[in-house]
Write a structure and sequence with these properties.
The complex is a heterotrimer of chains A (about 325), B (about 325) and C (about 290). Chain A is an alpha/beta fold and about 325 residues long. Chain A has eleven helices and twelve strands. The longest helix of chain A has 18 residues. The chains are: A alpha/beta (about 325), B alpha/beta (about 325), C mainly alpha (about 290).
Chain lengths: ~325, ~325, ~290
């Protein structure tokens, strides 16, 4: 049994201006110790996807359909109380600006210990001792738990947040742009750390990012999202070397690659469609250089183009063969 | 040769006084200045793009602002068209501000949310009293917007910034800078807030303007691969100093300075080349810029560090034509 | 033309939000009622307010002829009330305008220039902020003499300190926004930046503050008049209360004399306050989102 199976997940937002299909029929699964990269541009629904899994959606957002099976238990069906049990113990999230969520007038260790004590009935000394061990796990000196947040650098704060996320031995850790605000060197340190942790603790890791270039080195699988749908999913090698969706192909070309020619890529013309006024057909077709009449009218279904490699494109096989 | 140098910076220094308080006054006799920029020199030629690459706090943005006199330099000189900038001369500054423009990082922040596009783009004209009639104003705005790829321009005149996408806003900012027909532009992370697919459009626009108008750019970024993609030369900054400066390809593929090498090694590339390879990250963290460092700024994290590095600050030395490195062991590496 | 279309569109949007806000709606309707009353009231109730009535008309309780009864001089209270609305709103409006003008000017200058100018202006502001405003107004009113315009002046120059503080802090935050720096970089003067960039961005705050200051101005006028420092030649609500008190209407249980002006003051002030809170809510970008 897979650690996590997401099946036909539909999360919509009911706003004053209408219904917004932030996540629309998303499928993927994750094994123990596996890392999945969820990549896409702003507004494509990648964060909503993560929030749905942890059931942390804002009040306008609602799961309208589908299943989120965590070791066989459907997270969608659980009551709020049950979810509170599971969240953090089974699934924990590290957010982009997480390091700014630390209370500036409280020692970092105390904050983590307090969070542990909210979930488990243990004494403060034990919670602090556990915090020390967590700090060692994220490669920080244990005595730093007695420091205040302002004595930490950005990278250290993010490590502390990861330590906090690990406190209850979660099975899945979701990183929502965990390194976006950090410097490149610190980003590399954090990515190294996440990779080490998922291997050592055999956790599932979902890494959400807009930066495709960091996924090649960090993840096993990549899912590319566009306008609420996963347009392509496959092993890292499949995505980069046997690309089967025009969006993925163009997106990859948008990132400079120093081992290739120095040409400024074409980019992608146009802007993502307005999700409040969905058009019929493939959501990418207005920006797609391969679009045909079929694409205008019919939503492409996800087809298997290789082993565990899916693409939602009418012309997937042509893209795969180098168009 | 010397004529086409647009901007020359010589030993530029910007030191900020750290926040004064009663406590520091009482207990620390000497206040520690924050040396944001600590002796930076470079030249930019006509039609050239120089990238200033560094992490946050390396002083790259402050360098840019100091060139434009948006922050007051503590020391050093800035030359514009061979003439030292006279920051006290109001008449001179008016002319200078028209010829040297800055594009800021966040297109959501760098335009007044209460102005429409027409007024945002035309503001430099209004401020400098350059147009007399409404028609002339509209005409210049139209040309500028079209140059920036906002076509048809009239469609955008009366839109508010919140009605535009991030890429469009950045184009509006560029149009507003271009309307003065400058010959030097400082672009401070102009695409870092934009999605990858939008980014390249803005970069192409900047390159295109460079080619057509022979603009000189100072491109400030934290993204080394982006710097490589668009610039002719790259300068690597660390704690207010230039560690290495040279041709873009030279820096990326044949970098000499240990810091440059560390950066190029961890540079993410879209692909599977580095699959499963552990990133070689630098040990430790960047020291606080208020810390007094007598020797090489990179000393505390350098694998090659020797006694001399601790006490003596290395000067930039030329290791190959137009390739300068600030390291005591530059020639051995 | 296009430009005006945009402005009208924005105004419509604002009104739409405002009408959806219950506090704003109640405040607006009440205020509108009093404004219309002040403008058109005298046309429908052409009683002269200053003419004294006959002896038998003194302190009559409400009747068909005098809907709200008469006062101790035999004048019709309803007529007085209506002309009082004019005076009270006039004083409220003009005094507020003066306050807002001074407060905005000092606040923006102080926040924008900072350093010495800020220190100087803010100490000056603090002086007005901490000084007990009622005695100050009383002293000023007594020195300057009791005329309508003096009252307006006195209220105007004592009420701006809070506004200056609020505007200053908002200016400080807007000054740091990138578009201000960008405007400096294109060579704009300080005046240009203050007028074209700072002012439009603090304007919503000033606007929300205005209604609150107006409420205070009307209360101040009422207080001053009640204490006998008002203009005896005008029949503001405050003066009515003053006369009611002086003539012993309270002990004579002539509730129709002292209640109506009191209620009017409360309603106008309340409607201003409601509007103020509602605008604050509507214009607060944090509550509205991007």
């Amino acid at each position: 049994m897979a650690l996590l199976e997401v099946k036909h997940l539909k999360t919509y937002f009911d706003t004053l201006k209408g219904q917004y299909k932030a996540v629309d029929d998303v499928n993927f699964d994750l094994e123990y110790g596996e890392a999945l990269g969820l990549v896409g541009e702003s507004g494509c629904g990648k964060t909503t996807c993560a929030l749905s899994i942890a059931r942390l959606l804002p009040k306008e957002g609602k799961i309208y359909g589908g299943k989120i099976l965590l070791e066989g238990t459907d997270m969608v069906q659980l009551s709020d109380d049950q979810i509170r049990e599971k969240r953090w113990k089974d699934v924990s999230i590290v957010f982009q600006g997480a390091m700014n969520a630390l209370n500036p007038v409280m020692k970092v260790g105390d904050q983590i210990a307090e969070a542990i004590m909210l979930h488990e009935k243990i004494k403060k000394e034990d919670a602090l001792r556990r915090t020390e061990r967590l700090f060692e796990l994220v490669e920080m000196p244990a005595d730093r738990i007695r420091n205040y947040p302002h004595e930490f650098s950005g990278g250290m704060k993010q490590r502390a947040m990861i330590a906090m996320a690990l406190a209850c031995n979660p099975k899945i850790i979701i990183g929502d742009e965990p390194t976006t605000a950090l410097d490149v060197m610190v980003q590399a340190q954090i990515l190294n750390l996440l990779e080490k942790l998922r291997r050592e603790l055999n956790m599932g890791l979902i890494l959400i990012t807009h930066d495709l270039s960091i996924l090649g080195e960090t993840c096993d699988k990549i899912a590319v999202m566009y306008a609420g749908k996963i347009v392509e999913i496959g092993m890292v090698e499949d995505i980069f070397e046997r690309t089967a969706h025009p969006y993925t192909k163009r997106l990859i070309s948008c990132f400079p690659n120093i081992s290739k020619d120095k040409v400024i890529p074409a980019g992608i013309e146009g802007i993502p469609q307005n999700m409040l006024e969905p058009q019929p057909g493939c959501s990418f077709y207005p920006r797609c250089h391969l679009a045909t009449d079929l694409c205008k009218t019919e939503v492409p279904t996800s087809i298997e183009v290789g082993k565990k490699h899916f693409s939602a494109c009418h012309r997937a096989s042509e893209v795969l063969n180098g168009r | 040769m010397g004529d086409d140098i647009i901007v020359e910076v010589k030993d530029l220094k910007v030191h900020f006084e750290t926040k004064k308080s009663l406590a520091t006054d009482l207990f620390h006799k000497d206040k520690k200045p924050l040396k944001a920029v600590d002796g930076v020199s470079f030249q930019i030629r006509k039609g050239e793009i120089l990238s200033l690459v560094g992490e946050s706090g390396s002083g790259k943005t402050t360098t840019g602002k100091a060139i434009l006199q948006l922050v007051k330099p503590t020391g050093g000189q800035v030359f514009f068209h061979g003439e030292e900038i006279k920051s006290r001369d109001k008449y001179y500054m008016k002319g200078f501000r028209q010829k040297a423009q800055m594009i800021f990082q966040d297109p959501y922040q760098s335009v007044n949310p209460r102005n429409v596009v027409l007024d945002i783009v035309a503001e430099p004209l209004d401020v400098n009293g350059l147009v007399k009639t409404e028609e002339e104003r509209n005409e210049r705005v139209k040309i500028a917007l079209e140059q920036a790829g906002m076509i048809p321009a009239e469609e955008f005149y009366y839109r508010y910034p919140y009605e535009l996408s991030g890429g469009q806003r950045q184009r509006v900012v560029i149009a507003s800078s271009m309307i003065m027909e400058p010959d030097f532009i400082i672009a401070d992370e102009p695409v870092s807030m934009l999605d990858a697919s939008i980014r390249t459009g803005i970069l192409r626009l900047m390159m295109d303007l460079r080619d057509r108008k022979q603009l000189a750019y100072l491109f400030i970024t934290h993204d080394l691969s982006l710097a490589w993609l668009i610039s002719d030369r790259i300068a690597i900054m660390y704690l207010g100093k230039i560690m290495e400066i040279g041709e873009a390809d030279e820096i990326i593929h044949r970098g000499v300075h240990p810091y440059t090498k560390a950066l190029t090694e961890i540079m993410p590339t879209p692909g599977v080349n580095n699959r499963g390879k552990k990133r070689n990250v630098l040990p430790g963290e960047t020291p606080n810029p208020t810390e007094r460092i007598n020797g090489c700024k990179f000393f505390s994290r350098c694998y090659r560090a020797q006694e001399i590095c601790k006490n003596e600050n290395p000067d930039l030395c030329e290791v190959s034509p137009n390739h300068f490195v600030a390291c005591h062991f530059a020639r051995e590496l | 033309m296009m430009r005006w279309n945009m402005k009208i569109k924005k105004l419509k949007e604002f009104l739409k939000i405002a009408l959806n806000n219950k506090m704003a709606l109640v405040g607006m309707v009440t205020l509108l009622f009093f404004i219309l009353l002040a403008i058109f009231g005298p046309i429908f109730f052409p009683f002269s307010t200053m003419e004294f009535g006959e002896v038998e008309d003194i302190l009559l309780p409400p009747s068909a002829e005098h809907l709200l009864g008469t006062d101790d001089m035999g004048r019709d209270i309803l007529a007085n009330l209506i002309s009082g609305a004019r005076i009270s709103l006039l004083i409220g409006g003009v005094a507020t305008a003066i306050s807002m003008g001074i407060g905005t000017l000092i606040g923006i200058m102080s926040g924008y220039f900072g350093k010495g100018i800020d220190n100087l202006l803010m100490r000056f502001t603090d002086f007005f902020l901490v000084i007990p405003w009622l005695p100050l107004m009383m002293v000023l009113a007594a020195i300057l003499g009791t005329s309508l315009w003096n009252i307006i002046f006195v209220i105007g120059i004592t009420g701006w300190a809070g506004t200056a503080r609020v505007v200053r802090s908002q200016t400080l935050s807007i000054k740091e926004r990138q578009f201000v720096e960008r405007t400096v970089s294109i060579g704009a003067s300080n005046t240009h930046i203050m007028v074209h960039h700072i002012l439009p961005n603090v304007f919503p705050l000033i606007f929300a503050n205005t209604v609150l200051v107006a409420a205070v101005a009307i209360v101040s006028e009422t207080t001053l008049s009640f204490l006998g420092l008002g203009d005896p030649a005008t029949a503001s609500w405050g003066m009515m209360l003053h006369y009611a008190f002086e003539s012993g209407a309270t002990s004579a249980r002539a509730y129709w004399y002292y209640l109506p002006p009191g209620i009017c003051v409360v309603m106008v002030v309340l409607s201003f306050t409601l509007l103020g809170y509602a605008f604050d809510e509507i214009l607060n970008p944090k509550l509205r989102g991007r």
